[in-house]
Write a structure and sequence with these properties.
Family: Belongs to the plant acyltransferase family.
Helix content: 25-40%
Structural class: alpha+beta
Strand content: 15-25%
CATH superfamily of the largest domain: Chloramphenicol acetyltransferase-like domain
Number of strands: 15
Number of helices: 11
Distance between the termini: 35 Å
Radius of gyration: 22 Å
Shape: globular
Organism: Rhynchospora pubera
Pfam families: Transferase
Number of domains: 2
Strand order of the largest sheet: 1-6-7-8-3-13
Keywords: Acyltransferase, Transferase
Largest sheet: 6 strands, mixed
CATH class of the largest domain: Alpha Beta
CATH topology of the largest domain: Chloramphenicol Acetyltransferase
Protein name: HXXXD-type acyl-transferase-like protein
Length: 465
Amino acid sequence: MPSSPTPSVRTIKTYAVTPRPNPEVPRKLDMSSWDVPMLCGNYIQKGLLFKYPPDLSVEQIIQRLRNSLEEALFHFYPLSGRLRIVTCEGGGVTCHVEVGIDGEGAEFVHAVADEIRIADVVAADGQDLPKFLKEFFPLDLALNFDGCTNPLLAIQLTELIDGIFIGCVFNHAIADGTSYWHFYNAWAEISQGKAVGKKVVLSRLPVHDKWFIGGYGEPPIKLPYSSPAEIVVRFSPPPLRERMFHFTSESLAKLKARANHECGKGTISTFQALSALMWRCITRARGFAPEQKTSCRLAIQNRTRLQPQLPPNYFGNSVYAAAATTTAAELLNNNLGLAAWLVHEVVSNHTDSAIRDMVHTYMQNPIVYNLHFFDKHSIMMGSSPRFDMYGCDFGWGKALAARSGSANKFDGKVSAYPGWEGGGSIDLEVCLLPEYMSALERDEEFLAVVSPPIKLEVLLGISDK
């Protein structure tokens, strides 16, 4: 049966948004050993779906969002600059952020999707995520090095028939998911304050002092490339199926109890148990040979693990992808408790000394990562259910759903979101080759844990059941 055509999204107007002048902002910002590896990474693409505010026109919404974005950029000033890649005399390249160059600022796009409703975005149970979601995000996914890069931040407001979608595109070399949602919440906080005529003093100001490890001289970090063009490595994933899966707090509590009972340790967290489940079920779906090595990678934050700790509002990248590894036979011939314990050990071993060892190793041979680094035999647990996505209230209520674009996706990528209803519930966005997704949808261990999604009527406030 032929697939229906993808509904079109029309761009109406693009605005440049610049912050008010701040004489205290440095014009050159060095990048840390956690930022530089992300230079070739796709932009972070996340967005929130809202009901159409009944008391505001789209022009009023856009004006409020643009005004509040100007104020947010005043505080999050790296996002208003541009990345500069410099070829050094004698070889190598360095990079930094310049604030105050020509054309600085963020992009704000107003778009319209004439044929798309809220119900189309919130895919029904059993349906794949719609392909048109990628049209809700502006900018190319990868960097274009022509002396400077694209804007580091871009926003797109897309009008739907009965709602709006606010997509935010954020250069990953500037900051990680923790900082991304810090910015998104601050922007919403400013917008909500402006809606009632209140001058907003942000509850959480970003900290821009970069962390550098001693023993390697002063920044900038020098990369062993002959030109900026060598950094750019394009990645085109094969056709994937993408689905959102919902897990209630009750289902997750049972899963956690099972993992702790089976491993006999009592220290397995909810997310460790869920990661172990996904690792087992996806590995089973892939049908690997028994001796095949397979890994579960987890994006682990460094902020609270360093000693002394980084400020909780540290703005930048501070994350590593650590891996638990075993064979397919050991993973599947044992119970969930073994997989959960392997994941737990990786997280527990991510200590201050381990982080510093990784930084020292990187500084001896600094490189830039790309999506080809991810092993096709592994899964990657990205994002976090701790990110406050549904706390982003621009003044017209809680979002109905959080969704992503097409960036940073490959076979085995699993992204975690907080569940809409809160209380410890979790949503997982799973990207797999079509044959693997079909097998996962039939996996008995997986089906025993996954929950029905929240009904659209409940999201819209039409029903409480």
